[in-house]
Amino acid sequence: MTGVSDQTLSGPTNHPGAPQALPVLSVSNISKTFGGAKALQNVSFKVMPGEVHGLLGKNGSGKSTLVKILAGFHAPDDGGTMQFNGDAVSLPLKPGDYRRLGMAFVHQNLGLIPSLTVLENLRLVPLTSGKALYIDWSTQDRAARQALSRFSLDLDPNERVDRLTPVQRALLAIVRAFEEIEASRAITGRPGLVLLDEPTPFLPAAGVEQLFSMVRSITQSGSSVIFISHDIDEVMEITDSITVLRDGEMAGALTRDEASHEAIVKMIVGRNLFKTARPAGGPVERPVFARISGLSGKMLQKSDLHVGKGEILGLTGLIGSGYGEVPYLVFGAHPARSGTITVDGGAELAQTALSPRAAIDMGFALLPGDRQGASGVDSLPIVDNLFLPDVSRFFKGGFMRNRAMVREAKSLGAAFEVRPNDPGLKLSALSGGNAQKVLIARWMNRSPLLLLLDEPTQGVDVGTRQQIFAALRAAAAKGMSVICASSEAEQLAEICDRVLVFSKGSICTELVGDALTKEGISEACYATAAPASTSPLTSRVAP
Ligand SMILES: Nc1ncnc2c1ncn2[C@@H]1O[C@H](COP(=O)(O)OP(=O)(O)OP(=O)(O)O)[C@@H](O)[C@H]1O
């Protein structure tokens, strides 16, 4: 065992003449088999003190499996070794061992208890593991306030977590993880490690900045962070070094200096990735498919918008600007306060009376952003998840044609590159990104007339994104209209014919043609143009 005195805590790299730093975490030859399938094969990497280490890879490449091994949730196959701050750790880890070592996790589902308060969630470990006969709430309250203010997080400790915004929840989960490793560091005097498993997909740009400043403050104290993300720009901004997995094996490692966008993508995908460019030039005039007037919801003020036949319309803005409500209001999944919709020149219908059933009958489909809560059923097989909305078409002569269902599921899985492509597997056995592919395939397969999307490629890797974009474009070319709400400017710039930018509940800018760039969209989101009250569109930016 090596003591803390050997360690350099000032930064991620060793300087000439400085004592050789010990890795905080070092794993060698970690493998994991599920049934007959190898999810991980001889994975080895090190995380140095004060380092942000990116763990990247396509959907299903084994990142979460590795995280779950480090959390003691999965036992690895025999043969792997692990050291933490130079000490050999015997595998498998027992549940809770990670805490003793000085590790903390923020999983994709955040692991907060919604019915408890900010304080109770933040102080959960000390509250449940302490030996005191009673809880001194004023001490706990002080500790919670200190933790929140350390990270400049303006939250009321007594607020229930289910009343927080998704951003506040994510930041709270991260503060809790940082507090846990700090508590352990106070005892051991050695650096800790926080593992962030895709914490950013639902964070707006300002939330990501806040998260990154939290990450920097933890690495400045000498502890380390493993950062898992599919966002290459974020990875390049925050990480000091990167390990890339491909199909469960080591695809390679990069230092910050070596990590260009192209080098990372090539290592993840295994080849150069060519984006299919949006047709250049000005806006294309299309017949209107759906005209929506005076639509309002919780945050959305009365707004008018339309989508053309075969058009991909993007909606974006800062968090709370109201754009994210639109797909749900149009589909009737959230109650509209006002509004009408006219489809294909037909009769005007009240949005306030539209139910999801009626919307489906009109040829609408909605892919919600909350993959775990509202989109798929984790406990059902992939085949059932694929055909839930239209299972009746497999019912013939009093029998369910299971074989036909599985056959179609298999070919859909192949088309959307679902891995593993086994329709009998439960949705929960798929990696996050592969589960999202199943849900996109479900709706695309029904050839809807209007596809409503909320953050469609959340958690989806760079290679698969291109496939989804190509599938959306192909369907749009055949006449499907798409409304896509997303906080990802790059994604919108790549697929949309037109983007509406929302501010304070109203549409403030419309971007078309060559003005539709990642930078143009981001700028428009941050522009403080005051929205007009009756005529919502205040500017149209075209080439
Ligand atoms: N409990 C399980 N049972 C069977 N197979 C599993 C289980 N958990 C994961 N797998 C499989 O292991 C492989 C790796 O999955 P993992 O979730 O680690 O991928 P990932 O890199 O985290 O992907 P994503 O970016 O989509 O989250 C996948 O093929 C997945 O289907």
Entry keywords:
543 residues, alpha/beta, Rossmann fold, 7-stranded mixed β-sheet, 6-stranded mixed β-sheet, 18 helices, 23 strands, 32% helix, globular, binds adenosine-5'-triphosphate
Describe this structure in words.
Strands 16-19-20-13-21-22-23 form a seven-stranded mixed β-sheet. Strands 6-7-8-3-9-10 form a six-stranded mixed β-sheet, with helices on both faces. The protein contains 18 helices and 23 strands. 45% of the residues are buried. With 543 residues, it is an alpha/beta fold. The structure holds adenosine-5'-triphosphate (ATP). The site of adenosine-5'-triphosphate has 19 residues, from helix 1 and helix 15.
Rg over CA atoms, rounded to whole Å, is 25 Å
- Count of the domains: 3
- Major β-sheet, in short? 7 strands, mixed
The share of residues in extended strands comes to 15-25%
CATH class of the largest domain: Alpha Beta
What's the architecture of the largest domain, going by CATH?
3-Layer(aba) Sandwich
Q: Helix share of residues? A: 25-40%
For the record, what is the CATH homologous superfamily label of the largest domain? P-loop containing nucleotide triphosphate hydrolases
List cofactors, ions and other ligands: adenosine-5'-triphosphate
Number of strands: 23
How are the strands of the largest sheet arranged? 16-19-20-13-21-22-23
Sequence stretches where pLDDT stays below 50 over 5 or more residues: 1-17, 528-536
How many helical elements?
18
Q: Structural class of the helix and strand makeup?
A: alpha/beta
